[in-house]
Amino acid sequence: MIDVCGIEDVPLGEGRAVTVDGSRIAVFHSASGWYALDDVCPHRGGPLSDGLLADSCVTCPLHDRRFALDSGESMNGEDGVTAHTVRMRGERVFVELAGAQRLRRAA
């Protein structure tokens, strides 16, 4: 798990881009909790961290593609994005990349 920001860094209803192990990750603070997705929309590379949060989804700011915050699944039937594990420790937000989880389980 990598410490990516403080809870005060991402206001409720917003997202922020962070870098985790060289990858751009979007961290979101929604009414239902904290989430992390790859920050790049697979359609045109839009920054999901700048997207609009609503109904447990983020909408890409470039072309209105919607992704589920908890799974990264596309709500438009197109390619999804990878969802990552988020944990809170006190006032800090930690992210573990999905690939790192698979590698750890295989070891």
Provide a descriptive summary of the structure in words.
The model is unreliable at 102-107 (pLDDT under 50). The protein has one helix spanning 98-106; strands spanning 2-6, 14-20, 23-30, 33-38, 52-54, 57-59, 66-68, 83-89, 92-96. With 107 residues, the protein is mostly beta strands. Strands 1-9-8-4-3-2 form a six-stranded antiparallel beta sheet. Strands 5-6-7 form a three-stranded antiparallel beta sheet, with no helix packed on it. The chain is built from one helix and nine strands. The chain is globular, with a radius of gyration of 13 Å. Strand 5 and strand 6 form a beta hairpin. It has a single domain, classed as Rieske Iron-sulfur Protein (3-layer Sandwich), CATH 2.102.10.10. It starts with a strand and ends with a helix.
In the predicted model, the low-confidence regions spanning at least 5 consecutive residues are 102-107
Could you tell me the radius of gyration in angstroms? Answer: 13 Å
Amino- and carboxy-terminal Cα gap: 16 Å
Number of helices: 1
CATH 2nd-level architecture: 3-layer Sandwich
Provide the domain count. Answer: 1
Instruction: Characterize the main sheet.
Output: 6 strands, antiparallel
Q: Structural class given helices, strands, pairing?
A: mainly beta
Average pLDDT level? 91
Order of helices and strands: EEEEEEEEEH
Q: What's the level 1 CATH class?
A: Mainly Beta
CATH topology (fold) name: Rieske Iron-sulfur Protein
Strand percent estimate:
35-45%
The strand count comes to: 9
Helical content stands at under 10%
User: Would you identify the CATH H-level superfamily?
Assistant: Rieske [2Fe-2S] iron-sulphur domain
Shape: globular
Sequence of strands across the biggest β-sheet: 1-9-8-4-3-2
